[in-house]
Amino acid sequence: MITATVALLVLASAACAYADGSGDPKPTGSSDGEYQDASGNPTFNIGKDGTVDWYTQVGYLRYTANCMQCHGPDGLGSTYAPSLVDSLKSLSYSDFLNTVTNGKKNVDTSQDLVMPSFANDKNVMCYIDAIYVYLRARSDGALGRGRPANSEPKPKDYAAQENACMG
């Protein structure tokens, strides 16, 4: 009984070590400057000196241009839309993609929450991984408020990918 209780406590504390609906955000690999966690989800990489990966930097810029109007500065929410810093603590990458792509409607007598679909908005969808990476870093407490001061250089093939997506 004591062994089972100790094992349960160890599992619970490991789950609380990071606040991320997608699991442990530690990067285990990268491809063209985009880092992935052990599950293959996009994740951030922040150096000891505070230098962020390119996707985190671009995610900040794209979030600010496309999401901040409703979700507030730095993903902290507003009177109009919820905090994404809080939401990503329980929202998986696939749930995030689904919500952004398809929108969400939760209307009842106590609330009227409606997020439009961004499926056809290239300014969002071409940068969806970068936006997610930025919000994931904010949600996990790895990145503070405001624009990151330093970032890794733009990956060699990034401009070609961006141009192909934007058309």
Automatic annotation (TrEMBL):
Q: Signal peptide location in the record?
A: 1-19
Q: Identify the domain of life.
A: Bacteria
Report keywords, A-Z: Heme, Iron, Metal-binding, Signal
Query: What are the Polar residues biased-composition ranges?
Result: 28-44
Q: Which part of the chain is the Cytochrome c domain? A: 35-138
Which SUPFAM superfamilies does the UniProt entry name for this protein? Cytochrome c (SSF46626)
Alphabetized PROSITE patterns for the sequence? CYTC (PS51007)
Its recorded name reads C-type cytochrome, methanol metabolism-related
